[in-house]
Amino acid sequence: MKISKAEFRCSSERISQVPKDGLRDIAFIGRSNVGKSSLINMLTGRPGLAKVSGTPGKTRLINHFRIDNAWYLVDLPGYGYARTSKTVRNGFSTLITDYVLRCGKMHFLFVLADIRLEPQRIDLRFIDMLGEHGVPFGIVFTKADKLSKTQCEKSVERYRKRLSETWEELPPMFVSSSERGTGREEILDFIGECL
Ligand code: GDP
What we know:
Blueprint: E1 6-12, E2 24-30, H1 36-44, E3 62-67, E4 71-75, H2 94-102, E5 106-114, H3 121-133, E6 137-142, H4 149-164, E7 173-175, H5 184-194
Parallel strand pairs: 2-4, 2-5, 5-6, 6-7
Antiparallel strand pairs: 1-3, 3-4
The structure holds guanosine-5'-diphosphate.
Guanosine-5'-diphosphate is lined by residues 30, 32-38, 52-54, 78, 142-143, 145-146, 177-179.
InterPro entries: G_ENGB_dom (IPR030393), GTP-bd (IPR006073), GTP-bd_ribosome_bio_YsxC (IPR019987), P-loop_NTPase (IPR027417)
Family: Belongs to the TRAFAC class TrmE-Era-EngA-EngB-Septin-like GTPase superfamily. EngB GTPase family.
GO biological process, one term: division septum assembly
């Protein structure tokens, strides 16, 4: 799938504010600093679309970007930073859980994980929650340029192994690098098939 037009549509701090015009949402989430903004910019080919920052946990809103007037790319708030009054006990804000589990707008969710790290507790907890609720999701490994091809394969295998301790069916997995454009076609084609 190719993207010709990507435009910012709105930021929502409440579920009631997300667009309800019938276009499908394809969402992205991950721990702060995982490389989510960079991935969104890389996928859309628009370097400034989502902000890239070195300050973790800054964006706490849901951002909708309209793609080719056909679907929404949704930038969800990062999780895993210090707990706030709006953060529920499981470590995810009510905004995140309301959107992901309850609002019914999300068509598919990409959970991002830094390929250099072992499966992180908070990511596994989030993935388990998705699995328990039957939410359709996949995993995108970020920053693949930081490892060799063999190391990347080992990392993905380690993740597979860890997830298969709990789950019989594993989610689709993608290896990406925003620096090099790795994974772009594969992820976009997958989205194309989802829509
Ligand atoms: P976010 O907080 O998840 O939106 O993460 P950002 O996109 O702001 O990226 C966090 C940091 O990781 C920034 O310094 C980026 O330049 C860096 N980064 C993101 N993606 C990549 C990547 O694919 N390769 C490398 N080497 N660095 C990346």
